[in-house]
Amino acid sequence: MISTNYYIILSAILFTIGALGVLIRRNPLVIFMSIELMLNAANLAFVAFGRSWEIAKGEAFFNGQIFVFFVIAVAAAEVAVGLALIVEIFKTKKNINIDEMNSLKG
Amino acid sequence: MVSIRPSKCIRGYSTTEMDELMHLSETILSLAPWLVFAPLTGLLINLIFGKRFNERTIGTVASSASGAAFVVSVLLAYAVSINHGEVMRWRLAEWIHVGTLSLDWTFRIDSLSTTMMLVVSGVGTLIHVYAIGYMREDVRFKHDEGRFARFFIFLNLFIAAMMILVSGDSYLMLFVGWEGVGLCSFLLIGFWFEMDTLGRPSWANSDAAKKAFVANRIGDFGFLIAAFLMFWNFGSLQFDDVFLGASSLSAINSPLTVAITLFLLLGVAGKSAQIPLYVWLPDAMAGPTPVSALIHAATMVTAGVYLVARSAPIYTTAPAAQYLVAMTGAVTALFAATIAVGQYDIKKVLAYSTISQLGFMVAAVGMGAYVAGMFHLVTHAFFKALLFLSAGSVILGLERGHHHLAHKKESDDSRRRRSQGTSHSHEPFDPGDMRNMGGLRKSMPVTFWLYIVGTLALAGIVPFAGFWSKDEILLDARLHFPAVYWLLTIAAFLTAFYMGRQIWMVFFGESRTEAAAHAEESPKVMTVPLMVLAALSVLGGGLNLPFDGFHNLGHWLGHTLGEVESLPLDLTVAGVSTLLALAAIFISWLLYGRTPLEAGQTDPLKGLGFVFKGMENKWLMDEFYQVAIIEPFKKLSQFLADVIDWRFWHDFVHDTLIVGTYNWLSSIALDRYADRKGIDAFANWLGAATQWISQTIRKAQNGFVRSYALAVMLGVVVILGYLILK
Q1: B107 phi/psi in degrees, rounded to 5
Q2: Which end of chain B, N or C, is surrounded by fewer C-beta atoms within 10 Å?
Q3: Which of B698, B705, B709 sits opposite A106 (nearest CB)?
């Protein structure tokens, strides 16, 4: 049986990779993928904690898993809106480099 | 709130009889408020329904109201006699309770106040009845019949106020009545306020009313100061408390009592028309004649005499003030009598005669002869009311004759105008001018005989009422104040003279105008009250004959004023005054009766030169007051208005000091410094600072999404770091 700690460490590593991806990459598609990585890192942590709780209590308890389903649904919706925006931006600018989209500034 | 303070024990009755009488007098005492409420009821009825009632009903209501007050007065006098003259009080209501001052609305029923009540309501009722006839014609001659009810409302208000005056148990309650009658006097003098005495449009009548009011204000000022002094020093305004306080001052002529009595004298001079404030009374003749009779002859003007008699315990402690009161009265009596000699207006003669007779009364009460003064007050009320009302009858008689002629002339004129096209004008006709009269003996016989009775009573011919009362005053004066005696004796001589002159001029000889020739006698509603008054003028002396066993009024008033010496008849005094009166009447016959005045003829007394001119022109007293007081007063007011108020207060203090300071304060201190350099500067700095900060911070929003994400990340790291390391 693998200890919960390993799952959490894996989740942290995945989250860090995702966050760095968001900060470093300039292609919005890659940024979206990095965001997905962060969300799934969180999902992994939910599930790991949920199972750990279940073992400690000794009874069926699905709260962490249910939360993961919500996150997956919201992530799907978010990607749908984000991709639509990217398509529209590409249509007008013929370019999707995120650093060129800086007209909204003080 | 109502309570009875029973009097002390009654002597000379068995216990059951005493109980019954006590019970009876207490029952009667409970009627005391109706002295005031009865006339007020009449007033209210006429006020509410006066427009719907006819004149007879209005007059009946008002006269019954006054008559009811008379009935109550009679009952109260009976109650006082049951109680052997003990003072009775009836507390109607709580009035003023402030600090140590505690005054109730209490009716004081004693022999002095009931005497006044009987005179006021008795003579008042007769005059009410007379006024029904008089005003009926007066409102028609002046073409305003709607004013009939108003007259009786005022008249009832006067009776109510006068009852408050005489029944009050404190100086303050007396003052309420005092001001109330002053108000009624003002309202009634100015009854025909938009015309003069001849009915022409003018403000003369309302000016006369104002004059009376203002002159009385001066007197009221004295009264009020006296009342303040009493309250300040004795802590009360209740009669008995004040008298107790005054008598506890050991010194005779102490400055306090002298001050109080002299300030009261000023009030007396105002209300009772004494020198120097008498000038309003002759002008007050502008009021309808019943008013002159009721207010300005019989009742209101005697309030001053009542006040001195009521304040007797204070006056006796201040002989110096008493002397001044006596001299004021005596000088006024003589002074006014001389003016009366030179007057042509029938009412003006009587007005000056009233001032003169009031002088007799004031002199009497000033000498301490309170009974004599009150006696003369009562008889004077009878015969002077009789004279005034008869004079009113004469005036109306002439007015009737004049209108009769005017109508005839008018119809003649209109006939002539139709044929010739000419117009006519009314010349003003004065029905009160004795030079327009003459020969009324034949056309107005009833009035003539009534007038004779009044004249004999006023002149002091035996056995008419005036003789006895005047004689008592003269006798007292002769014993104690010789100077007063001589002044009053000369005044009495002049009194007989001017009354004789009036009789000859009005009733004898030939008619000097057509109006006099066509004069008509007055109706019964006017002459019957006059007959009652005439009977009283004849018999009134019986109240207090100077024989043993007949000093009835003296004993009656003695219960209140303390026993006074009852002087027997002194043949010298009586003889001198009677002879002088007869001589005066004889001289007046020589001058006016033997050869009656012709129309347009000047007065035979013109031979006296400047003396008669002085009498005729009232010794120029009005003009003197105009020059000596009114003009300087106007100048002073002008000065106060122009210089003190306008230039000093308005221009300097207000405009320069206050507005200037305010402007300086607002423009320099507040505007330049506090507002611009303080508040504005702070607000501007705040704006500038906000701008600068935002200019600085806006650079952070650079539009690069990744730098925002980095900031969020760093923020998360910082917060997490804090939470972990905490």
Answers
A1: -90, 130
A2: C
A3: B698
Tell me if ipTM is over 0.90: no
CB contact under 8 A, B706 and A99: yes
Output the six-digit token pair for B390.
């008869």
How many cross-chain Cβ pairs, A to B, lie less than 8 Å apart?
Answer: 30
**Nearest partner of B715 among B700, B699, B696, judged by Cα:** B700
**d(C-alpha B264, C-alpha B55), whole Å:** 41
For residue A101, which residues of chain B lie inside 8 Å, CB to CB? 703, 705
Which range scores top for mean pLDDT: B9-18, B184-193, B415-424? Answer: B184-193
Interface test with A, best of B695, B705, B714, B724 (most A CBs within 10 A): B705
The Cα–Cα gap between B477 and B486 comes to 9
Q: If you compute the radius of gyration of chain B from its CA atoms, what whole number of angstroms results?
A: 36
Please tell me if residue B720 touches chain A, with a CB cutoff of 8 Å: no
Q: Which pLDDT score is estimated for A83? A: 92
Helix or strand run (H / E) with residue B718: helix B705-725
pTM comes to 0.77
Residue B424 binned pLDDT confidence (cut-offs 50, 70, 90)? very low
* Secondary structure tally for chain B: helices H, strands E: 30, 3
B3/A contact by beta carbon, under 8 A: no
User: What is the CA B687 to chain-centroid distance, rounded?
Assistant: 77
Out of B697, B700, B713, name the one closest to residue A23 (CB). B713
Closest residue, chain B, to A31 (C-alpha) = B706
For tokens 């003069």, the residue is B196
Interface of A with B (CB under 8 A): 19, 22-24, 26, 98-99, 101-106
pLDDT in tens, B153-172: 999 999 999 999 999 999 99
Residue with tokens 């009976």: B78
Determine the pLDDT at residue B13: 57
| Yes or no, beta carbons of B706 and A22 under 8 Å apart | yes
Rounded to the nearest angstrom, the minimum Cα separation between A62 and chain B is 28
The residue type at B335: F
Q: What is the 3-state secondary structure (H, E, C) of B4-54?
A: EECCCCCCCCCHHHHHHHHHHHHHHHCCCCHHHHHHHHHHHHHHHHCCCCC
Give the residue from B171, B64, B83 showing the smallest Cα distance to B121: B64
| Smallest CA–CA distance from A19 into chain B, residue | B713
> Can you list the alpha helix ranges (DSSP code H) found in B311-444?
312-315, 319-341, 346-366, 370-420, 440-443
